[in-house]
Amino acid sequence: MIDGIVITRLKRILNEKGDIYHALKNSDESFSSFGEAYFSSVHLDDIKGWKKHTKMILNLVVPVGSIRFVFYDDRYESNSYGEYVDVIASPDNYVRLTVPAGVWVAFQGVGSGLNLLLNIASIEHDPSESISEALSYIPYKW
User: Fold this and answer.
1) Which of 2, 19, 91, 124 could form a disulfide with 35 if both were Cys (CB 3.0 to 4.6 A apart)?
2) 5-44 b/e with 16+ CB inside 10 Å = b?
């Protein structure tokens, strides 16, 4: 596992009129702060990434569809330097992926319909605090 990434199994409450999906509480151990929340979609087989935030902590949840996340650690000081983590999140594997600043992330739509993620970010969006690279920048076989 990459240092600082936390995978938290989330509560899904089944209800005949519509389910309830928990995402994040300020009492959760992995909660740091709130900056903004936003949704992003990705089409089947499309890949978004690579991106690395220098300050933002991500809290990624997939309430709709299925998304494959790949994380890569190039932090020299990290015990997990050079490691990858590959996780598929969906309502059937309902988890929150907490990702520290400094870890690369890319994601791929693997569900056939709408694939939707929620990011509850620790800070507001600031384009100057992130680095984006083409998929070929980090060698990974999708």
Assistant:
1) 124
2) bbebebeeeeeeeeeebebbeeebebbeeebeeeeeebee
The answer to whether domain 6-137 has CATH 1.20.1250.20 is no
For residue 56, what is the DSSP state?
A: P
d(CA 22, CA 40): 18
Specify the amino acid at residue 11.
K
DSSP state of 44: B
Q: What is the pLDDT of residues 11-70, one digit of tens each?
A: 999 999 999 999 999 999 999 999 999 999 999 999 999 999 999 999 999 999 999 999
pTM (predicted TM-score): 0.95
